[in-house]
Model the fold of this input.
Amino acid sequence: MAQAAIELIGINKSFGAVRANRDINLEIARGTIHGIVGENGAGKSTLMSILYGFYQADSGEIRVGGKPASIKTPNDAIALGIGMVHQHFMLVDNFSVLENVILGAESDALLKKSIAKARSELERLEREYGLEVDPDAIIEELPVGLQQRVEILKALYRGAEILILDEPTGVLTPAEADHLFRILKQLKEQGKTIVLITHKLREIMAITDTVSVMRQGTMVATRETRKTTVEELAELMVGRRVLLRVEKGEAEAGGVKLAVKNLTVKDQRGVTMVDDISFDLRAGEIVGIAGVAGNGQSELLEAISGIRHAVSGSVMLEGKPIDLTGAADPGELRDRGLAHVPEDRHHVGLVLAFEENENSILGYHDDERYLKGPFLDIDAIRNDARDKITKYDIRPADCRLKTANFSGGNQQKIVLAREMEQHPGVLIVGQPTRGVDVGAIEFIHKRLIAMRDQGKAVLVVSVELDEIRSLSDRILVMFAGRIVGERGPEASEGELGLLMAGVEQREAAE
Amino acid sequence: MSTPYAKLPAWADYGLIPLINLAVAFIVAGFVVMLVGENPFRAAVILVEGAFGKGTGIAFTLFYATTFIFSGLSVAVAAHCGLFNIGGEGQGYIAGLGIGIVSLAFDSVLPWWLTFPIAIIAAAAMGALWALIPAYLQAKRGSHIVITTIMFNFIAASVMVYALVGFLKPPSSMAPQTRTFLDGAQLPKLNWVIELFGAKIRSAPLNISFLLALVMAFLVWLLIWRTRLGYEMRTYGHSPKAARYAGISETRIIIIAMMISGALAGMMALNPTMGDQHNVALDFVSGAGFVGIAVALMGRLHPVGIVLAAILFGMLYQGGAELAFEMPAISRDMIVIIQGLVILFAGALEHMFRPYVQALFASISPRTVGMEAAKGKGA
Done:
């Protein structure tokens, strides 16, 4: 086996009580493409951030090229020949490609020399690796795939021998992704080492030589890619840990509450995020939408709740259409019985600078119960907030406390209490337990099931497969903006994992 | 680790830090005074005595403060909605047009207590109107409110020159100002209130608009923290995304907040015109709109803080004038330097000492800095 480019030995990293990396050992051979897979929050990005100098490990050792290395800042990493291509590009939008490439690596006070040097260097890189890009193009005018290429060029220009790519294909079209893989293979042939972080198993199978699987902060396995299968990786990724299952009876689905038909949503860049989706949500059932983050779930939720423009399709709430032009009044939808727990509670669902009681009326602040004429009825609002605090066991039980001072779980309970206590006919919930501690998860799940048992329609979107399986009466799997399958709650994790990874069922069976 | 401006106890946040900022401003100003060869301690004594020593000084201090309260409230209302209204100067100036027209029309026929409310409405309406256009452009076209309100300051200045050398000026006069208002547009003085406390006042312009300013401070508090509209403004100011989610119309809230802000800025024109000079003259706002930004920042956008900060700036204006009179080496421009230093340290560099104060508090007792609450005590 080739000499190791990087060795990580006994890496530990904690954020507060969360152990993001536990005793990680990893050896990456020189001149190979090494994949790292795992669910969201498994610790992949933390590990790579440690390697790139964004974080310091609490303990453990990093060896680069066999020698112990101390990587305190990204500059140390660059000096050791480690380059990183981030999921979200770190480019100056209104600079040219050349200017971005030399940014931070200018050799002189005057730019002329650096630019000339970079120009010839870029030409060489282009010849060697097929990394064509117009050096004088302005970044914001380039498509995403080319912007990513500039990121790769930046790393190579700084002499990177080891290239880390964090979810590189998340923003790419399939054709762009294919081109990226060709570039990566070429880089490998030139002796570079590539670390690919992804949760798309198909990519792992297509391009990597070795693959390591992370789960809940630990490295559970490392396999040679050609000796493993997608099924095995999916199982390793999802794990066989005991489910936190909440008791629930059979669903008694009633009439259709929410009907989504041929819904298509594009993002600001014009990329199709939700692609012709149709489904029904009935009274008395929980429908779960599973999928890896970024496959259009957020956009779907926002379109249904009237805060994002949809290109085409329709959404009927209790038989009446929802305005999908993006100009819908969320207040009016609330009046019609649609409650929405947004994925991003920090910026959307809550105003963190507000007192708890102020957040407990957000969106319902024009309700007569909380008003006396144009004035807020402070007593009514606080009493109402105190009731919810008791009912939902929100701690600390202080409705005057700033919302930012509550823990994630309690913040989520504030949002849930607000939305559920309006007794909506339809509740849509994005990531019900993201960043929520275990005790609160069970509580939130019980509440959601109680809502269902009262005959409400509940739509849950989550990247946590366990959560989807435990809550849902029906599971829809989203991949690349489409619903790629519907399963019952008895579907196995492996099966769902494959669907989430975009692997067709028949393909996997072969 | 990602919250550099974490919690401090309220008294440190609202009392200690402004005091430290102020002290540093005065220390630096003291060096400037030393540079011109005067004794900084004596200068400080003259400044404070000039502002608060005699009844007349107090009356002048409060007279200046009146204008700053209005302009400070104006900035604060917009800031609570996440908007930086830098156009108070122009909104106040253009309000002089409304005041001038109302006063010239009614001062011979109505008593002051009827002219005053009409003039308040006229001033507020002109200020609001002047803020409406930038607000509309921001809400509908995304034109940055800072740029447009600055530009509207210049437009207001030109419009006022046009009006004051034109139809507002008496035909025979050479001065670019209106004729002197008659009794019907002169606001009553408040000097007798200070005289109640035994102080003697020779002649000072403190007038009833000071009370209007205090009423407005209370109304702004009521608006921001006690009404549905204020709630919506604060929601939008903290998080436009949350406002969108809550069904608050971005266009509506921006326009309303800016119009209220403009109306308050407009009202500051009442004090120097109907309250003091009894005319509308060229450049009567003289920078009070900009001082309002410093006042609002120093007052932490709270009406009580704004009233206190306005009085501090009133003191600098009045005490500064005394200082220039008593110490010939300290010119009027030197006073502007001192005022500038206060604005610099209390406004622009507001957070300069905060990390050190926080570190100090954290080293004494981590609990006071609220660390354990921020980390969360579990569900």
